[in-house]
Amino acid sequence: MNHSIIARSLHFTAALLLVGAVGCGASPESVGESEDLATGKGLPSTKATAWFGDIAILNSKELSWTTIMSTEIKTSNQKTLFINPSLVCGLYTETSVKSSGGRKDTSTASATIEMQVLVDGQAAQPGVVIYCSRTQTLSATLGGILQSCTDVNADGVITAGECQMTDEEISLLLSTMNASSFNFGADVTQGAHTIAVQAKISTSTSTQTGTAAAMATIGKGSVVVTEQRL
Questions:
Q1: pLDDT of 46
Q2: What are the sequence ranges of the domains in the chain?
Q3: Do residues 188 and 119 lie in contact, with contact meaning Cβ atoms separated by under 8 Å?
Q4: At 29, is the secondary structure helix, strand, or coil?
Q5: Would you list the DSSP string of 122-165?
Q6: By three-state DSSP, how is residue 197 classified?
Q7: What's the confidence (pLDDT) of residue 155?
Q8: 64-107 tens-digit pLDDT
C-alpha cells in the first residue's frame, strides 16, 4: 500500500462580516477580537467556503476512513449547508486465468472508493456514497496447448491421455481515471462549523489457478460549501 496526502491547496471564504484587526493604539477589546479570529472563535459569518488541492493517494489497496479535505464556515443563524465534494478517482484491476483439459478457471478483482462528509463530526445526508467502483471477473474454459504425444502402450493409437498439455492463459487489465461529484446536505445551528470530507478505499481479489490485482488512486479534489435557508 502506498498513499500520501500532498498539502497543496487553496482555501477560499466569502465573508459577509469582517471583525476588527489589531493596529497601533488598538483597544483591549479589539485585541481580544483579533485573538479570537486567530483561534477560530472569531470566524466571520460567511455565505460560502471552498477548498481546492492535490490529494494524491496513489495505488492504494486499502485506506480506512481518512479526512482528505476540510474547511470551516460560520452561519449567523440556523441554516442548511449544501456541500459538493468533487474528486478525481482512478481504478486499476487486472485478472488472468489459466486452464487446460476443458477445466474452467475464474479470477476476480474489485476496487471501490467511498466518500462521506462529516459536519461537526456528524454524517451529512445521504451518508456514505460510492464515488468509483469496479468488479472485474474473467472466466475461461480452455483446452490447453499440445506439447507432445507418445504411444505409451504401443497399440498404434494415441489418445488424449498419452499427450502432454500445458495451460493456456488469458489476461485482462483495466485502468481508468474519472472525476465524480455528489451533493450532501446538513442542517446546522448558528455558529462555526467544521466540514470534513472523508474517503475510504477497499479492494479484494479471488483466484483459482490464475492471478488478480486491484488498486485505487485519488488525485485532485475540491469541496464547495454554501448556506441556504430552506
A1: 77
A2: 8-21+28-228
A3: yes
A4: helix
A5: EEPBT--EEEEEEEEEEEEEE--EEEEE--TT-SS---GGGEEE
A6: strand
A7: 81
A8: 999 999 999 999 889 999 999 999 999 999 999 998 888 899 99
